[in-house]
């Protein structure tokens, strides 16, 4: 995978920072960075742009799973669309890869259009146009991503 552009890297760091800070205070789970791979139940190895996993799942993994590509799907996944990404491909990835393999909540963030699409198992995607913030639900209830901190300067 080629490196991301500067703005995409900046935005991804802001997402990871917000999620990591919240997870540290909340204490129920752990956050993984962009380059962390997971072996999904489908057998595919995928690396989300940001994700959260409950400590219960993390602690249930063997040491070798923790050291390698753990055989499970994180409960919360964030994918960030870069300028070169095809949105249809990312939408398919959200439903066919993440949600179908066990993610309880998945967000697709599109900086270009300032759109966030929320995916949950068994539900139609929820599209938020230029939200001021996005609220975590379920496994990440209490997490809030303030979008002005994410979008940054134009």
Rounded radius of gyration (Å): 15 Å
Q: Helical residue percent? A: 25-40%
CATH architectural type:
Alpha-Beta Complex
Strand order of the main beta sheet, please?
Answer: 1-4-5-6-7-8
Measure the end-to-end span.
26 Å
Average pLDDT confidence is: 93
Taking pLDDT < 50 over at least 5 consecutive residues as the criterion, the unreliable ranges are none
| Number of E strands | 10
Characterize the biggest β-sheet. 6 strands, mixed
CATH superfamily: tt1808, chain A
| Count of discrete domains | 1
Q: Into which percentage range does the β-strand content fall?
A: 25-35%
State the CATH topology.
tt1808, chain A
Order of helices and strands: HEEEEHHEHEEEEEH
Which structural category do the helix and sheet elements fall into?
A: alpha+beta
**Count of alpha and pi helical runs:** 5
Q: Provide the CATH top-level class.
A: Alpha Beta
């Amino acid at each position: 995978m080629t490196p991301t552009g500067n703005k995409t890297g900046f935005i991804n760091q802001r997402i990871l920072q917000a999620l990591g800070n919240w997870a540290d205070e909340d204490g129920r789970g752990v956050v993984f960075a962009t380059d962390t791979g997971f072996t999904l139940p489908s057998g595919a190895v995928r690396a989300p742009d940001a994700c959260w996993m409950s400590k219960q799942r993390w602690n249930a993994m063997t040491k070798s799973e923790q050291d390698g590509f753990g055989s499970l799907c994180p409960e919360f996944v964030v994918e960030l669309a870069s300028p070169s990404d095809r949105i249809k491909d990312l939408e398919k990835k959200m439903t066919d890869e993440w949600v179908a393999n066990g993610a309880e909540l998945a967000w697709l963030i599109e900086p270009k259009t300032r759109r966030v699409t929320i995916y949950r198992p068994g539900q139609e995607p929820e599209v938020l146009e230029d939200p001021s913030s996005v609220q975590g639900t379920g496994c990440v209830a209490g997490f809030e991503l303030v979008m002005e901190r994410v979008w940054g300067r134009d």
